[in-house]
Amino acid sequence: MKMLSVVLRNLFSPPVTRKYPQEIRSPFPATRGEIVFTVEECMTCRRCERTCPVGAIKVEIGPRLEVASAGEGQTRGAGRLIKRRYDPYKCIYCGLCIEVCPQGIIVFQGTHTSPATRKEEKVAVYTLGARKPAARPAEEKKEAAMN
């Protein structure tokens, strides 16, 4: 009889949980959340890769290559092709990679990873060591004379 009263009470009471996709709870202040990389400022020291206890971060450094200038203000010069792989499904969100990063480019974002239908790594490919084209001395003199 006691079970019947519990069933009837739960049947006619409002739900205790949130309707997740429609109602998203704001994260708590100390929430670790999703790990985000700012690869433009990375110096590729690979400390994050060596520190990760589960191997969720992999950094592949390619051979030196010549980067061609594609136009005004584009990068050019010698550089290395870098491929950074991050697997959020392997990650245990311990924060060790964030602590050891000397540049501070790895941070916890306040949101959680969105639901997905398949597991995919996050891959960033960029060139390390490429630089903006320097102005030629003759052009600098012309610009200075015009001003």
UniProtKB/TrEMBL annotation:
Gene3D superfamilies: 3.30.70.3270
InterPro entries in the cross-refs: 4Fe4S_Fe-S-bd, 4Fe4S_Fe_S_CS, NADH_quinone_OxRdtase_chainI
Keyword Iron-sulfur listed: yes
Sequence ranges assigned to domain 4Fe-4S ferredoxin-type in this UniProt record: 33-62, 82-111
Annotated Gene Ontology cellular component terms: membrane
Taxonomy, superkingdom: Bacteria
Pfam family, one: Fer4_7
Name of the protein in question: 4Fe-4S ferredoxin iron-sulfur binding domain protein
Alphabetized UniProt keyword annotations: 4Fe-4S, Iron, Iron-sulfur, Metal-binding
GO molecular function: 4 iron, 4 sulfur cluster binding; metal ion binding; oxidoreductase activity, acting on NAD(P)H
Organism annotation: Ammonifex degensii (strain DSM 10501 / KC4)
Entry annotated with the keyword Transmembrane: no
